[in-house]
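FW: tagging you since you asked about this chain on Friday. Here's the raw sequence from the shared folder, copied in full. Didn't touch anything.
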Amino acid sequence: MNETKEMNDPTLQIGDTVKMQYPPKYNNGWISVKDRLPEHNQFVLASDKNGNMMVVRCDINRNGENLIDYVFMMTDLTRQVIGVSHWMPLPEMPK
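HL: got it, structure written out here
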């Protein structure tokens, strides 16, 4: 029988059902830009309102603790991405 296990369970094996826990306001790990922004210069997986996904970098402009504006840039840092609605952290690199 394949029981559901926590992500940090040391007995976790390929094929096990994993119980992912996200706070209720998150949608399968996706975080709305209305709820929270990534850290400045953080690369993240982003989605726009049309469901397109891309890896982007978040540039945040603050005046002290006050947010002035933010922009998502393509990884080549030459193009701005318009309409990002949600984001999630990138996974760790393989070892």
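FW: The chain has no helices and eight strands.
HL: agreed, and The longest strand covers residues 53-63.
FW: great, closing this out.
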